[in-house]
Amino acid sequence: EKEEEEEKEVEKPSVSYEETFLNEDLMFGELDILSLGTSGFHYHSSAKLDTSFSKVGMKRLLKEQASFSSILPLHPSSSVFVRVDSSRPAVLQALITGPQGTPYQNGCFLFDVYCKNYPSSPPLVNLATTGNGLVRFNPNLYNCGKVCLSLLGTWDGAAGETWDPKMSTLLQLFVSIQSLIFVEEPYFNEPGYEEDMGDEWVQKESESYSQNIRKETMKWAVVNMIENPPKGFEEVVEKHFRLKKEEVEKQGESWLTGKDEAGLKKLKEVMAKF
Asked: What keyword terms does UniProt attach to this protein (predicted)?
């Protein structure tokens, strides 16, 4: 009888990645972001001082955020989790997981978002995951946190790629970061480099660039993220890496063996908790 019970337990279907986050309502939520101070939110000073906000902007933000729980990207390959300040809809943070097949795979990257003059102007966006200002994760992501994207007006782009106050949304911004920045070969995001994509020497440069990004992703977007999860995203980080445990461990073996043995050892230590 006991054996039968154990068999049933084994056969019990596991809850999928998507179901885990939907069932526990972790996609979108409120957080007292401004209480985190300047070290916890890049735009803290200006957001704290700026108390004026247009009714149009407020209405638009609340309308967009009302659907976040059901429309934010949620997939084992890459997801977007958002927290909004309890009293200021213009103050947000987004945790984006790196897509499969990229040097950002399974890493968690935190972005500070401040919708000043929204929607007339694009949001201000800063990457908080920079290895304490030491790592430039992409030609579009500076080690100071600056995010370069035509949608934000911080990168040259065609007319259709720039911010349109009537049509552009926060969801569009998050998806653009996922698909235009967290790419398979980030080296070619540098203007002009794409023209030489077929060149053998350039491909070697690209692979070398990606290898370095992989190492930094494991160090800062995996290990450091597990050890120091951002406030409000603790459960998201814990569940993401628990569900991805086997995959992340294999990824570490593949990415770090013979290249960063100390990093691999550290990864195994932190993953052992799951």
From this structure: Transferase, Ubl conjugation pathway
Give the torsion through C-alpha atoms of 60, 61, 67, 72, to 10 deg: 130
Bridge partners (DSSP) of residue 125 are 113
Prior bond to 186 cis, omega within 30? no
Grouping H, G, I as helix, E, B as strand and the rest as coil, residue 201 is helix
Rounded Cα gap, residues 123 and 151, in angstroms: 9
Pick the residue with more confidence: 159 or 25? Answer: 25
Nearest to 218 by CA among 272, 256, 177, 179: 256
Domains of the chain: 14-271 (3.10.110.10)
Q: List, by residue number, the catalytic residues.
A: 148
Using DSSP's 3-state secondary structure scheme, residue 124 falls into strand
The SS3 of residue 116 is: coil
Q: In whole angstroms, give the CA distance from residue 260 to residue 252.
A: 10
Kindly tell me the number of DSSP H helices and DSSP E strands found in the chain: 12, 5
User: Residue 12 pLDDT more than 50?
Assistant: no
3-state secondary structure of 259: coil
| pLDDT, the chain, mean | 91
In tens, the pLDDT along 97-155 reads 999 999 999 999 999 999 999 999 999 999 999 999 999 999 999 999 999 999 998 87
Q: Record the pTM.
A: 0.92
Which of helix, strand or coil describes residue 38?
Answer: helix
